[in-house]
């Protein structure tokens, strides 16, 4: 195991048997890439609802891909069997979807997590890294939000993810496995299939003359580029902990939607775009998501990619800028 605060290296992961639920999706597929590059033996469980197999094209021959659903206890049992570490990233990760299909959200995020935890007990899993969310905090009573902030989610998504956190923590204490619960703020970058930065860029790709934006534009978010997120998750899977650890991961810089729009327009070289604010946002949306990341930074991690550079890389990946500008 690593010394506290040190960065994980190749030997930390070589030969480790790791399951990544949701490993075909945006964050999950990048985690799979990182684990394979470090020599881990990687298994993936995914129902392909939100991710694309194309995301794993570079590592497809090196992994064990299982097509299955977190709601299916047999599929989860078979995937967990033989693994030492589980990155539990699979989930419904959409607030609007949690409002529209509450049963799917609950069964995927909460019941699915129970299936993972129960299988982890049966097969002596050493550690679970749970990808949770800043939505468990609800509207902030102060900012930036630290891990001691009251937990008062206002969407079915936030509620189901908080229930998953509590269940895993109880199981970790009862059955003595390790749990590292990471509360993720906004992540962006290549392979992202939706959400603010991606949605704005794709709207501009369709019509660079006019951009319609949900809300007033004064909403604030804390964006973390995908490579920084993966670096943090590698630490969460390998650093020594006592039993249960909870920590925020974000980019450490609060940006309003208006500022984000201006940065994207600058990135794409658009100067005459009409920007229209005020479209209705969705139920359960939180106006301010700003994370205090001092706890995770104490583990030897720092976000390295500023949002200007991250947006440029994302635009190149989407084909909106020529690759030679990178």
User: What is the highest CATH level, the class of the largest domain?
Assistant: Alpha Beta
Helix count equals: 11
Distance between the termini: 36 Å
Radius of gyration (Å): 19 Å
- Please summarize the sheet with the most strands: 7 strands, parallel
| Topology-level CATH name of the largest domain | Rossmann fold
Mean pLDDT: 93
The CATH architecture name of the largest domain reads: 3-Layer(aba) Sandwich
Give the strand content: 15-25%
What would CATH call the homologous superfamily of the largest domain?
NAD(P)-binding Rossmann-like Domain
Tell me how many strands there are.
12
Q: Which sequence of SSEs, written as H and E, runs from N to C?
A: HEHEEHEHHEHEEHEEHEEHEHH
Summarize the entry for a quick read.
The chain is of the alpha/beta class.
Helix and strand arrangement:
Elements lengths: L9 H4 L3 E5 L4 H12 L3 E6 L17 E4 L5 H8 L4 E4 L6 H6 L1 H21 L4 E7 L22 H20 L2 E7 L1 E3 L7 H11 L3 E5 L5 E6 H11 L7 E6 L4 E3 H12 L5 E6 L14 H4 L9 H11 L9
Helix pairs in contact: 2-8, 3-5, 5-6, 9-11
